[in-house]
Amino acid sequence: MIAWLADPPFFGGPGQGVRQLVELFTAFGLTALIGLEREIQGKSAGLRTQTIVGLAAALILLVSKYGFSDVLVQGLVVVDPSRVAAQIVSGIGFLGAGIIIFRRGSVHGLTTAAAVWESAAIGMAAGSGLLLLACVVTAMHFLIILGFMPLAKRLASRLSGSIRVHVTYADDREVLAAVLQACDRRDWQLAELEADPAGGAFLTLSGNGIRQAPSALARIDGVTAVRQIDDDPD
């Protein structure tokens, strides 16, 4: 039994060489970086989820490429390695759908679901031997996550848009009326007002310079806290 397990063809058959190990470890390392970023951000799909998805996608693709070599017969049995890759894309869609939730009138988890899909794509690229593309997409992920958010906030502060905020204020004062008056003075339109049973209120505001609303509302006498609710707190 031991001699059979140690037989070189058992461990060194087609698709079980150094190249495939490098591809697997590349998928592991790159998706672990993405998972670490998600973990630091406190997101639901963090280090373990992203790494498992990327590593599994790479392994499945390697199985699709090399796992059926013993049943291939020239001119009789032919397989298409791309068929399993297509099923990975479909399967990840179900996993991503489980991450996305709808709460308090807004969608949560879109970016995290997209990151899981991205990890699967990086794992597939690594498993296909496209290591350079896998590395480039990983670098682009950090450019998108770390670079686009400040740029988007800077642009939104100058352009019109909408935000949702939670305002906590003293119950014994007519603070909410002062908040609404402050919004009216700045031509911010109130699209939605919802009382919070735990205290305070949810406001959905729109207008020019709307990104300045949290700091402006926090300066109103009687307001104890203002928290902006992201459109996609993934």
From TrEMBL:
Locate the transmembrane regions by residue number.
20-36, 45-64, 84-102, 131-152
* Pfam families xref list: MgtC
The alphabetical list of record keywords is: Cell membrane, Membrane, Transmembrane, Transmembrane helix
Please indicate if the UniProt record lists Transmembrane as a keyword.
yes
InterPro entries of this UniProt entry?
A: MgtC/SapB/SrpB/YhiD_fam, MgtC_SapB_SrpB_YhiD_N
MgtC/SapB/SrpB/YhiD N-terminal domain location: 24-152
Protein name per the record: Putative magnesium transport MgtC family protein
Organism of origin: Mycolicibacterium madagascariense
Q: What is the lineage of its organism?
A: Bacteria, Bacillati, Actinomycetota, Actinomycetes, Mycobacteriales
